[in-house]
Amino acid sequence: MSIRVKLFLAFLLTILLIVTSMHFFTRWSLEQGFTEFIEKRQQERIDKIIDVLEAYYADHRGWNTLAKNKQDWITLLWQVDPLRHRPPRRIMQLAQQEPANWWPPTLPETSTGKWIPFGLRVMLLDKDKSIIFGQEKLRAQLDLHPIYYEFQVVGFLGLLPGNPVSQASDIYFMEQQTKLFLWIAIGMIVLSALLAWFLAYHFGRPLKQIAAAAKQLATGDYKARLSVTANDEIGQLALNFNNMAAALEQAEQSRRRWVADISHELRTPLAILRGELEAVLDGVHPLNRDTIESLSSDVMRLNRLTEDLYQLALSDQGALSYRKELLNPIPLLQDDLAAFTADFEQKQIVVKWINQLFKPILINADAHRLSQLFRNLLANSLRHTDPEGRLEITVQRLKNQLMIELADSSPGITEQDAAHLFDRFYRIDPSRNRHLGGAGLGLAICSNIVSAHAGTLTAAPSALGGLLIRIQLPIAV
């Protein structure tokens, strides 16, 4: 079942539930209110009949005159009818055919219809509850209302149970309202279906577009993008999808460059080895110690490249082993610097140590990996700083961060080169001698080591005219 069908059913069922609930509640409210209105009107008619009977009793000093004239009793009942002041002829004829005090007359079932006139539901009883106009068999069903004269009960008006909606207009009104509510409910159901379809289509369309774009992305087409036209969750989902597609496209491009760079880096030393070996085989170069040392140098360079690739792959996957402990990195950096002292002196590079720490600090780090980081950075400065140059190493505390800066002298770099310095296989001068430059993986490995220690590694042009490398590591104690 598609998402549009699910949305359609969900919206339709929700709206149908609301419409149905409103229909039944409105109908119940109307019936309750109308019933209260009719009951109030019925009570008013009862009070009016009692007033008429009290006046009649006062004029005639009793019920004897009324009891002998059934027509007067019928006339009195219909005088209080607000819509009809004369009794129907059919009622008069039936009443005359029955006993004098028999009331209400027996009507044929076909003539009663759905309602009984109010005048056919009342009886008159004397003060001792003897029947003046009524039927003995219906006495037990009566609801009695006393009739007073000079503060004395002189009789009772009995009301038979029945629907208080006793007017044809009332019945017609309720029937019309019931039909109207039914048609309104049917119309609302149709409208609900149309609205549910529209909402399902409206909300399902972007989801369908996202599904299609995701399918396109799964086939390897990373150029799939969605149009972001809303600021809601669906719009945010489309924006996140575009960001993911862009990241995958960039990752695919990086992978291709990575494979191409690896192929290029491996092909070059292998081509050199092949050329030298072919020269030896052809007798161009003699197989002596110098030739073997040259071949060994090319092999070692190839070995360093493969080792760098292996280390970089491990650091990318987070598979480098880290045995972190609380340690002071400054003595570790000093020991690594001491190992390079002879090389810096041979190249006549002046190294200046600047320690701005007032007390020892501790960080949570792996000593072996930190030493690998420091040695890679020192070797990079040694390799790329011109002879008779300068290297300044500054250590200081910046809030809760340990900051280590290595700033060397010329040659310098641009801001654009500094932004890509930690990209793998990136070289400031791609055409320079590989015996000097390496494969361009050392700084990428350094960046991964610093990231594994929750720190940051940045590069920028230095004030000495060369490169500034800044390491920031969080301080534990």
UniProtKB/TrEMBL annotation:
What's one Pfam family the UniProt record gives for this protein? HATPase_c
**UniProt domain Histidine kinase: residue ranges:** 261-477
Q: Tell me the keywords, alphabetical order.
A: Kinase, Membrane, Phosphoprotein, Transferase, Transmembrane, Transmembrane helix, Two-component regulatory system
What is one GO cellular-component annotation here? Answer: plasma membrane
Query: Which CDD domains does the protein's record reference?
Result: HAMP, HisKA
As its record notes, the protein acts as a catalyst of:
ATP + protein L-histidine = ADP + protein N-phospho-L-histidine
What the entry lists under InterPro entries is as follows: HAMP_dom, HATPase_C_sf, HATPase_dom, His_kinase_dom, HisK_dim/P_dom, HisK_dim/P_sf, Sig_transdc_His_kin-like_C, TCS_sensor_his_kinase
Q: Which domain of life is it from?
A: Bacteria
Name the enzyme group at the top EC level.
Answer: transferase
Recorded E.C. number(s)? 2.7.13.3
HAMP domain location is 201-253
The protein's GO terms of the molecular function aspect are:
phosphorelay sensor kinase activity
Span-the-membrane segments of this chain are 180-200
Task: State where the protein is found.
Answer: Membrane
Note whether Phosphoprotein occurs among the keywords.
yes
The answer, when asked if Signal is one of the entry's keywords, is no
PANTHER family, alphabetically? SENSOR HISTIDINE KINASE TRCS (PTHR45436:SF5), SENSOR HISTIDINE KINASE YKOH (PTHR45436)
What is the protein name for this chain?
histidine kinase
Instruction: Please name the source species.
Output: Nitrosomonas stercoris
Q: What is the lineage of its organism?
A: Bacteria, Pseudomonadati, Pseudomonadota, Betaproteobacteria, Nitrosomonadales
